[in-house]
Structures are given as structure tokens and as C-alpha cells.
Amino acid sequence: MDTSRTRGPVGVAIAAVAAVAVALALVLAGCGTGDRDRPAPTTSPPAATTSPVPSTPAVSPFTGLPGRTGPVLAVKIDNVAAARPHTGLGAADLVYVEQVEAGLTRLLAVYASQQPPTVGPVRSARESDVELLRQFERPALAYSGVRSALKGFLQEAPLYALPPERAPAAYERAPDRPAPHNLYLDPQRALAAAPQAGTARDIGFRFGPAPAGGRPVDQHAVRFPAARYGFAWSAAEQRWLVSMDGTPARTTDGGRVGAKTVVVQDVTIRPSTFRDRGGNVTPYTETVGSGSALVLRDGKAYDARWSRPSAGGGTTFTTPTGAPLAFAPGPVWIVLAAR
To answer: Rounded to whole angstroms, how far apart are CA atoms 156 and 166?
Structure first.
């Protein structure tokens, strides 16, 4: 008899039950083998879990310290006796000391890691500031004014020139000091006027453990024709404390001024083609080239060589044998002294 033609509902049910029984027997037979300890399969694999990867904090190329590395703001700061104490100077990553007319000096403070609420008092820029600042790519430069012959030169330079007429909201006169030593800058408002200012980049400095050798010193002085700077090592604070014209340098907002590393960079200072209102020739400080230097760190003095082959590049400091000379992590003062 052809069963395929006579299978009815009962036959179908019997066949289905038989198929289930066979399948169950196969499963039970498998359970009796060496796969007894194999875990039962799941309907879907467990969701993958990821652990957050810790981010490495940015390290400032200006100080060697971890932290914020924001846009570069350079500020020309007055430092004659009537301009002291300063405000916001202690927050600078770098401070350059430059000779100006009549043998006096001015400070060029560079900020990137921190933005203090106020900086000052602010004074005028000089021609050699453009060459010095080229190594920072395109920074913002805050200053109070320049001789008319120098205005176009600064405005066409590879920087964001921010005198009061270009960023009026960033400046304010203090009523408790006489002009011209009473003009102060709000860094946040200044940088708002230069939103494309370049961020901190490598300018040649290296940071790390002190090199071998060095001479123990606790005092060092640098003299200009009409200004004097002193640097005294403080073992308690592990930094060099700054004095100006024999007076300890202080700020209105942060106490004593100091630096972890002080560089006395021997440079050529020559007359420029500009004069001030009194007829004094404006000095031009050459920061492109090479020469000798003295590096103060950790209570020692190290003889060094500096090199900056082009204005667009940074300045490197090496030992007399040519090895990189590491600075102590922290703020750096660079005194541009005549050879």
C-alpha cells in the first residue's frame, strides 16, 4: 500500500512525535560525552565592555609642566620703579628682559598655560619684538603704543597686534597710579580680539633632570646701563627669586616673583633706525644667531651655548659639548644681555 497517499492527520501527528523523540535522544546522547562541561550556548554574545583609556595631560613646551596649552599672548610690561609692583607677572610661562632707550629695560611676558585676570602695567613695543616673537609662529601681542614710524611695521608683522585702539575693551586705566604707568590688560578680552592666535608650540627648550657638573651659586646679577637684575636661589622654595634695581620683585596678586630657570643669553644689541620722543636711539636686540649663555637652575650655574639659525625657528641651549641642556620644569626668565 502507498502510505504517502493515505497519511491522515493522525499519521502526521505520530510522525511529528517520532521526530521529536529522535532529536531528544540525540541531545541526551551528546550530554553523555566529554562535552558535559561545555557551557550551554546563549542566544546572543555578551555585550563587549570597554575601559576608558586614560588621556595623557598636555605638557607645555614653555614650562615642561602638564596642563593647559592655550593660545600665546605676549605682553610688553613696564618695569621702572613707578611701574612696580606688577600685576599678573607671576602667571607668565616666560619672561624676556630687553634693553630699551637710555639703558633701561622692559619685560616681554608670554602667557599660554595661564590667563591671570589682569596684567600690567602695559607699555610700548619695539622693533626687535617682532624678531623675538617669530619663533612663536603667530602670537597675539598686547602693547600700549609705538612710534608712528613703527605702527605699520608691527601691523604687517606675523603676529596679532593688539594696542588699545584695536582691542579697547581689553584695557583699563588704574586710578591709583600716574600715567603712563597705569594701563592694565584683561587677557581674556585681548585674546577675544585675536581668535586665531597661535597655540603654544616647541620653541627649542628642553626640560628634565639637571645635567652633570655646574657650579654651586646662590646669587647672580645682570647689569644694564640703567637697570640691574638680581637672582637669588631659595632652597626653601626651590626657585630663583627676582630683584630689580636691588628691590625684591613682587606682584599685587601673587607675592614674590621667581623662576625655576634663569637664562642669561649673550646677544648683540645695536642701534636701530628708530628713536624715542626724547631723541634716544632705540636699541635692537638680535635674537637670531648663536652665542654663549649662562643657565641657572637648582642652585647651580651651567655654561651653555645658544643657537637660533632663523627667525622662524626656536632657540636651543646646549652644554659646551653639544648635548641638550635641560631646564628645570617651571617658569623661565630669559635675560637678553649685551655680549
So the answer is: 14
| Nearest residue to 125 via CA among 289, 337, 272 | 272
As a three-state string, the secondary structure of 301-320 is EEEEEEEECCCCCCCEEECC
**Which residues touch 124 (CB under 8 Å, ≥6 apart)?**
76, 143, 144, 145, 146
Which cell numbers in the block locate residue 7? 497519511
Element (H, E) at 216: strand 215-216
What is the rounded average pLDDT for all residues in the chain?
86
User: Is residue 172 predicted with pLDDT exceeding 70?
Assistant: yes
The identity of residue 29, as a single letter, is A
Q: Which residues of 235-260 are buried (b: 16+ CB within 10 A; e: fewer)?
A: eeeebbbbbbeeeebbbebbeebbbb
The CA distance from 144 to 139, in Å, is: 16
pLDDT at residue 1, rounded to an integer: 40
CA distance 42 to 52: 27
